[in-house]
Design goal:
This protein is α/β, with parallel strands linked by helices. The chain has helices spanning 18-34, 48-57, 98-103, 108-120, 159-171, 188-192, 209-220, and strands at residues 7-11, 38-42, 62-66, 92-95, 124-129, 142-145, 176-180, 199-202. It binds 2-phosphoglycolic acid. 2-phosphoglycolic acid (PGA) is lined by residues 11, 146, 151-152, 180-183, 201-205.
Length: 221
Amino acid sequence: MLDNLPLIVANFKANKTWDEVASWIQSVAPKAQTFPGTVVISPSMPFISEASQKIKDQSLKIKLASQDISKFEQGAATGEVAASQIKDLAAYTLIGHSERRQNFGEDDKILALKVQNAISAHIEPIFCVQGGDSPVPQGVKIIAYEPLFAIGTGNPDDPANAKSMGQKLKTNGNYLVLYGGSVTAQNIKSFLKKGLLDGVLVGTASLDPQSFLKIIEAVSK
Ligand code: PGA
């Protein structure tokens, strides 16, 4: 239904200038081209357009995700980016990352609006949850399980636990489930082996293209 699995999503958060994003793409592109899964990058909003152009011009096998999307549609919403404004640029959008929930007061109602807008614009939401109890809005096909204690801490979840969370989430719907939280080249295989989990969301270890390349290499073997 979607792109090839596993999905390896690099979330740059509020890091990198355009030059740095461009040189990252340049470094990772050759490996992404032969990777059997899908490499998705999530740069800051101002670079989505240029990144999309670069990917198109060079026919690269890299997909784009925005890190967020507005709960509003196009109109009087200063500072926001509406889903329909980037629908031709980003295949995916993160929605409900814990940093958005915690620091920007995004609640279930707001997140459901964001999901609705993304889906109407044909952008695939990657809906982030911290555990099995968060409501998942209708229409979501991809969930990212990201336990709070594991994000940016170097302290990943136990792979067995992440897998059983994946299993639990999948009993509630026909979801793809990604794991996120301190994923590295050293631990990625333990999260992806034996199926159940369909990909990963990588923050810190995605920033350096060389360390990200090692992540792709680890799952290509
Ligand atoms: P981390 O971030 O890889 O730095 O833990 C993951 C995320 O926030 O998506």
